[in-house]
Amino acid sequence: MGIIKKNYKDILYFEIEGFTFDENMKHLFTTRLGWKQNNIFDDLSQVISVPKEKIYSTRQVHGTDVIIIKEQCNSDVKKVEVDGLITNIKGIALSTYHADCVPIYFYDKVNKVIGMAHAGWKGTLNNIAQVMVNYMVKDFSSRLKDIHVALGPSIGVCCYEIGEEVAILFKERYPYNSHILVEKDNKIYLDLWNVNMVNLLNAGIRKENIYLSDYCTSCNTDTVFSYRKEKGTTNRMLAVISLNQ
Ligand SMILES: [Zn+2]
User: What does the H/E/C string look like for 68-134?
Assistant: First the structure.
């Protein structure tokens, strides 16, 4: 699995291989090429053909709270401090900001429910993936076998060095999943993709319904931004999912 490079005029974006099986749902991940950072939602609106005011984003706080968008309201969810969004409304788009943290895309292909979540190490440790699945099941009657999930571009185990104190938290929370941490040259690396995979499997998502982009942001700063590699860049990519009208 991996990413598929797509172009809209001079704008480059990614799709995640395998997650493109249903034309009722669209998803993408922006890059640093062609997008205007200060007007990224204008560009996005054109690329996905969704009006700007129907593209939802939130103030992300590395938590596990989620907002359910059940009716199209004018309320400005940009001010809501949550890291996940879920809806079954057609014609709107859900988006989260990223520059190393994992974008997790959710799609119930039967009930037509979409979700988008932002998971850095805290959201991953505290299992926002499970929270998203719980809401889809409880609020939208999603069946676990119908939920497809994609893990988008983010910092890979090749580059994500962490401190001992963070490693201990993961060792304690995941005592039977030693493969999530890799030690080399006296350094510890965390595999965020693998932890989220464990979280999704534990939540009851089928392995064959999980799609991996396998694309490290830190290894690819010619194409995407990396907070870690670029020492705190304020530039971000958007992870986006939408249901067609
Ligand atoms: Zn890397």
Answer: EECCCCCCCHHHCCCCEEEECCCCCEEEEEECCCEEEEEEECCCCEEEEEEECHHHHHCCHHHHHHH
